[in-house]
Amino acid sequence: MKIERLGQDKIRIFLTFDDLSERGIQKEDMWQEIPKVHDLFTEMMDQAYNEVGFDATGPLAVEVFALPAQGMVVIVTRGKFDHHHGVGPHYEDDLPDEVYEMEVTLEQSDTILYSFDDFEVLIEAAHVLRPMLTEAGRLFKYNGKWVLHLEPEDLEEGKHPAVIAVLAEFGEATSVTPAMLEEYGNQVMSENAIGVICSNFKRQD
Fold this sequence. Notes:
Belongs to the MecA family. The chain is an alpha+beta fold and 205 residues long.
């Protein structure tokens, strides 16, 4: 579980599928009101407070982006707390419930994004991937890492699991979105990144 502060009232949490499976949660459970998900959200908010000082008091807007290859990105935005609500002897009792007054929206994405610390490792991955991919991939430099961006249409039918396996072996799933890459990253290769890398860089012996 990785937590990043996006602003005073907004954080982003990246959950891998391992994070979910360790807690006995399936991807489909994330938009259901079940105790396991409630416990996970409590854990996320505790960790967010401890790591980045995010106070989850008040109504929260929660956006969940399901990324099939990487896991889930959860964007939590804190709304304005209504100080008139619950005024009276039970005000303190009402506060815990307020923390979980959530509005949840979900989006599915088939985009594949993996980051690489070392360009030499990316070269190796590209050569392994090339037989599976024809003309595929965009390459960005973002936060000191090389980020490879693949769309589902770049992959031949049935090759998806094999491609993910290679990417997971050489790189690391990242929670950054294509929109963030385009806005804050530097586009190094706009198309056919796999082919361009393989044509210009040899594998290490």
